[in-house]
Write a sequence for this structure.
């Protein structure tokens, strides 16, 4: 049964975020969308609509760690492009791509609220500021190392 | 109490009701402001912004559709600022719209094209930004061309809030916004009910019926084929609108002549089959009452409704009458009874239906609908497709002569005529059931309580001393309410009529563009006038139907009836 | 960083080296405002906030006391309070610091406002990009509940407040009240038609008070020290202080609590220490991405609602972003346009299509391939976007464009490929 529609549901957004968090690949699969629709008695298109609107929700698989480089004016002027290039060079991925080992996904983000230490990036829940390309590579290596140690 | 306010509209001081919008106030005072996302039967959206006007004291322009008038408001609708803005907005929409107007199905009745013309837009300076989506031809009834979508949201509104089917919705954001099923799926991959209400809502050519007129032309040209046509009850009160004539014209005779001009060999009437439907359905109800069958019994004439219950409430299918719809009863009889009477072999008979409905196309193609040994109905055309065929042959509808339906499937009663309106099937059934059960003549034929545009109507009818509770729902959101009440055991009805589309078939998804609720109302009134003026108003009094039973079927629910006129349903839930 | 010590001239008194705990907060007078407010009539609390002249600090600057009163007076079986912590305006980081450093003052403010409005349920809507502040607030809410400052029968009174955190999911637009509500209700975060306003019909149709983090954090101090104290801060036009997020090409980037009446020149040169060594200020972007570009000769304007409105400077969230002579104005404007293009909900034509076209045209300018006609078009689309968009996003998206046409027109002209004058366009 797909859609005995409710027009509103306050738990949709938290449900989507929770399901994504539980996913090993940081995304919502079509099965996830369908099961949430069933659970909340919403049409699949309604659930998909909400999921597709928010930039923190991904509908395609991502890596274990998500690197978000801030692309707004304060970070752009402070040299975010060099940071992005350093990441691309180090990991071999462009924006919205995932490394082959599924360890990292690189994304561009609108303002992390860290403009007092631009350029800034966020890896998962951690924010890094006053970055230089060298510093950025060092940070990436700690994540890589952690993975090797596991 | 005086609920009026004084406003100044382009310098004219006028008094208007306090609760209306600027757009409505302007309309009542001689100015039709442009609009695209606005639809009189839908919630106000204020997305498209082409209706903006200047209001003194407001920093920005305001949308006239969503802004209520207020006392002392000074409104200007045609300042240079308003004109530049509206023209620019339309220019921006056109930059994101394919320039294929001459070959577009909406050429001639596209709201965007009309607006561009009205504004005198002569060139588009904005950079073309049309995204190329593949055209979705997967559905058996509808074609979706997302390239032409202007994101007004009217289809999504009707799909989600009027029908509550929830197939079309707006996804993504910014310039990626896209109105479609989830994941941009094709219509054939989702549980669309084929009601076609989205088509009626669309201002442009982004979604439309699958045109099958060429199949009909081919059949007519084929000397080997005997091409017959049936016209649904509601077509005679809507076809004139295809020629720009006002809604609510009864044009039965002209419709027949028009079809004869096209070259059909015989012009028959679905109303004849509607009378047969009442004989079968009325008797089925009586049988369920007698034998303790599943009640309430739900009507089965509306294919969009059948698609809905099969896909979304299959657990309730036992409630649905086993009767085929009039279209399909006609088809099955055409290739058996008519074949026999006329001596024309069934394989040579080509049956065309003129239907107010897109779901009828799907119904005609169902596997179950081949009880004559052939596909019972070969092609179902919508009112709009018929309009297109007629216009292409230079038909001047208003001066056509008055024609007559052919025998033996052309006679009908007033009961059949009202099938096209919500509550009509119920009323027709009650007229027959009452007389069969009581053996007495029904004095007052009108069942006023089941008439009208209210979403869910109910009534208790006294039949031979016992009260029979009936209900009528139209539009799937209302059908859903009824289904939920059956599920929860709260529905103590005996018989329920359900029509997929708002207003019933006169508001079907195959009807002329501009099918607003106001027009639906006019068409409904025309059908009731038609009924009133008819000599015979009860299905069981139709002489052609009597002859059909005497010569061919035997009795209602008999063996032949069972084979040709009844069907079964399946769980099609996703 | 601004290290203002406990000072009677400030409302926030940030000490950036200190992450306040609940005991220290109490020792410094924390919760005394809540205690006294709960003993007063709701109307009295509203009156004090009205007298203080506090205005919404999220950007719209609507008088906070009046908003409170509207919710208080509105009919509704239930009422809600929502603290808007969806701080998304680029260049703004004040709410982040409030939540990480002085979360108790914010929560005390929420509770007092809820009491005055008559709201017993509420949400703290935090943007998804703030995981740490979210954790800090979760912890602080728990502490307050345990200490009886939140939850059932607060401090033994009849007043209860059930406050839960709601996480955004990455949409700038959700900072707009009706979009925020849509988002809580599980829909796309798209703005809705007003009226009805949330104060009348907000969450689930109930009257809802929506206030920004900074606004609410002012409230405990107003109650504790009195509206007269508050009005003594700032100027006659604008009372209190404003948090300024200073970023870009200055010596000392950071968050500053600045009394109203301070000039932007002082903010940049005194608080921020001026431009970097050997550089000069070329332009200042005030109010974030949705703000305006201001040339150096207009920095004498003082931070005041009235003055700034007259001078067409948008205080907005209080973001001040400095660009020195090395920066290309068109790069900056294009960055802003790309930001809005990404964040536009896409439902209204002027915003969606206007931004799409502006993005194409700016690209052309930056590649020095534009014409005079392109400039005319860019200006026209900007006007239409500002004048006819559904919500503040589309309207504000044109601010930096418009001011750049005005103050930095030469930079556009210099990128025009052929120097022939524009054709007359019908």
């Amino acid at each position: 049964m797909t859609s005995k529609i409710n027009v509103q549901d306050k738990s949709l957004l938290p449900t989507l975020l929770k399901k994504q968090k539980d996913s090993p690949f940081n995304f919502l699969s079509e099965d996830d969308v369908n099961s949430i629709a069933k659970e909340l008695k919403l049409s699949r298109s309604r659930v998909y609509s909400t999921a597709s609107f928010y930039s923190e929700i991904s509908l395609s698989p991502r890596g274990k760690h998500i690197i978000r480089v801030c692309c707004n004016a304060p970070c752009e002027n402070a040299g975010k492009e060099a940071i992005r290039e350093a990441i691309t060079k180090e990991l071999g991925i462009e924006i919205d791509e995932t490394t082959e080992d599924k360890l990292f996904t690189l994304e561009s983000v609108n303002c992390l609220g860290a403009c007092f230490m631009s350029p800034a990036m966020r890896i998962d829940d951690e924010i890094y500021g006053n970055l230089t390309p060298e510093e950025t590579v060092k940070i990436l290596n700690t994540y890589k190392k952690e993975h090797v140690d596991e | 109490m005086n609920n009026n306010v004084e406003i100044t509209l382009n310098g004219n001081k006028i008094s208007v009701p306090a609760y209306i919008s600027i757009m409505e106030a302007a309309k009542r005072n001689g100015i039709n402001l442009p609009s695209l996302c606005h639809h009189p039967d839908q919630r106000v959206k204020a997305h498209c912004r082409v209706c903006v006007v200047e209001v003194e004291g407001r920093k920005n322009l305001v949308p006239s559709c969503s802004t209520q008038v207020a006392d002392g408001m000074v409104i200007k609708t045609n300042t240079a600022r308003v004109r530049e803005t509206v023209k620019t907005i339309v220019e921006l929409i056109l930059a994101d719209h394919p320039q294929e107007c001459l070959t577009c199905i909406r050429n001639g009745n596209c709201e965007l094209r009309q607006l561009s013309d009205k504004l005198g837009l002569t060139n588009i300076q904005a950079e073309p930004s049309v995204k190329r989506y593949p055209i979705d031809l997967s559905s058996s009834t509808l074609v979706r061309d997302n390239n032409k979508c202007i994101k007004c949201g009217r289809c999504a509104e009707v799909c989600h809030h009027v029908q509550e089917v929830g197939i079309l919705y707006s996804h993504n954001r910014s310039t990626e916004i896209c109105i479609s099923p989830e994941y941009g799926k094709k219509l054939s991959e989702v549980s669309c009910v084929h009601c076609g209400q989205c088509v009626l809502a669309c201002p442009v050519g982004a979604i439309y019926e699958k045109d099958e007129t060429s199949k009909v032309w081919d059949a007519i040209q084929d000397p080997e084929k005997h091409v017959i046509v049936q016209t649904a009850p509601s077509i005679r009160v809507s076809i004139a609108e295809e020629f720009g004539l006002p809604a609510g014209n009864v044009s039965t005779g002209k419709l027949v002549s028009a079809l004869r001009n096209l070259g059909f060999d015989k012009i028959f009437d679905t109303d004849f089959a509607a009378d047969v439907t009442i004989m079968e359905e009325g008797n089925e109800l009586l049988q369920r009452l007698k034998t303790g069958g599943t009640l309430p019994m739900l009507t089965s004439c509306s294919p969009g409704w059948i698609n809905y219950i099969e896909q979304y409430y299959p657990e309730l299918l036992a409630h649905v009458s086993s009767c085929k719809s009039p279209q399909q009863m006609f088809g099955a009889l055409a290739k058996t009874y008519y074949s026999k009477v006329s001596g024309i072999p069934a394989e040579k008979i080509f049956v065309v239906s003129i239907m107010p409905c897109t779901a009828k196309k799907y119904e005609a193609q169902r596997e179950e609908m081949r009880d004559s040994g052939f596909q019972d109905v070969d092609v179902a055309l919508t009112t709009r497709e018929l309009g297109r065929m007629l216009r292409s042959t230079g038909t001047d509808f208003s001066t056509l002569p008055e024609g007559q339906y052919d025998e033996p499937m052309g006679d009908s009663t007033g009961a059949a005529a009202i099938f096209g309106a919500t509550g009509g099937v119920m009323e027709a059934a009650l007229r027959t059931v009452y007389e069969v059960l009581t053996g007495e003549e029904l004095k007052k034929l009108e069942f006023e309580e089941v008439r009208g545009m209210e979403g869910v109507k109910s009534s208790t009818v006294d039949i031979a001393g016992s009260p029979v509770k009936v209900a009528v729902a139209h539009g799937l959101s209302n059908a859903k309410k009824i289904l939920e009440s059956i599920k929860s055991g709260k529905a103590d009805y005996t018989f329920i009529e359900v029509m997929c589309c708002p207003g019933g078939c006169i508001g079907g998804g195959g009807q002329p563009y501009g099918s607003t609720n106001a027009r639906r109302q006019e068409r409904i009134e025309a059908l009731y006038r038609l009924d009133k003026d008819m000599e015979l108003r009860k299905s069981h009094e139709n002489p052609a139907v009597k002859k059909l039973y005497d010569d061919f079927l035997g009795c209602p629910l008999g063996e032949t009836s069972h084979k040709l006129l009844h069907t079964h349903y399946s769980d099609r839930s996703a | 960083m601004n290290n203002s010590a406990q000072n009677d001239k400030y409302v926030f008194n940030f000490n950036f080296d200190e992450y306040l705990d609940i005991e220290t907060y109490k020792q410094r007078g924390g919760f005394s405002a809540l205690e006294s407010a709960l003993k007063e009539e709701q109307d009295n609390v509203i009156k004090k906030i009205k007298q203080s002249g506090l205005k919404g600090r999220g950007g719209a600057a609507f008088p906070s006391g009046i908003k409170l009163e509207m919710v208080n007076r509105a009919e509704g079986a239930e009422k809600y309070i929502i603290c808007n912590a969806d701080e998304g305006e680029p260049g703004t980081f004040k709410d982040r610091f409030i939540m990480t450093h002085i979360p108790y003052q914010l929560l005390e403010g929420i509770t007092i406002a809820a009491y005055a409005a008559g709201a017993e349920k509420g949400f703290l809507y935090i943007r998804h990009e703030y995981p740490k502040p979210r954790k800090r607030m979760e912890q602080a809410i728990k502490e307050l509940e345990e200490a009886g400052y939140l939850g059932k029968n607060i401090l033994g009174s009849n007043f209860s407040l059930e406050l839960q955190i709601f996480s955004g999911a990455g949409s700038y637009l959700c900072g707009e009240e009706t979009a925020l509500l849509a988002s809580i209700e599980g829909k796309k975060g798209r703005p809705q038609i007003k009226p009805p306003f949330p104060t009348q019909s907000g969450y689930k149709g109930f009257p809802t008070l929506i206030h920004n983090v900074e606004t609410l954090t002012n409230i405990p101090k107003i109650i504790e020290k009195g509206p007269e104290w508050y009005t003594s801060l700032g100027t006659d036009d604008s009372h209190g202080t404003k948090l300024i997020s200073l970023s870009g090409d200055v010596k000392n980037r950071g968050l500053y609590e600045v009394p109203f009446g301070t000039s932007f020149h002082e903010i940049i040169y005194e608080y921020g220490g001026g431009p970097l060594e050997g550089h000069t200020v070329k332009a200042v972007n005030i109010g974030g991405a949705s703000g305006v570009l201001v040339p150096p000769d207009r920095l004498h304007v003082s931070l005041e609602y009235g003055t700034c409105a007259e001078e067409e400077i948008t205080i907005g969230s209080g973001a001040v972003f400095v660009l020195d002579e090395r920066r290309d104005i068109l790069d900056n404007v294009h960055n802003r346009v790309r930001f809005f293009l990404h964040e536009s909900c896409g439902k209204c034509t002027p915003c969606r299509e206007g931004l799409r076209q502006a993005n194409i045209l700016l690209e052309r300018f930056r590649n020095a391939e534009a014409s005079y006609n392109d400039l005319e078009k860019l200006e026209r689309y900007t006007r239409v976007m500002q004048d006819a968009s559904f919500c503040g996003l589309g309207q504000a998206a044109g601010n930096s464009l418009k001011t750049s046409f005005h103050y930095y027109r030469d930079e556009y002209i210099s990128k025009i490929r052929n120097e022939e004058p524009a054709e007359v366009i019908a």
Residues 1-5 of chain C have pLDDT under 50 and may be disordered. Residues 15 and 229 of chain C are 22 Å apart (CA to CA). Chain C has three domains: 22-232, 241-324, 329-413. The beta strands of chain C are 80-85, 121-126, 162-167, 208-212, 241-248, 254-259, 281-286, 292-294, 319-324.
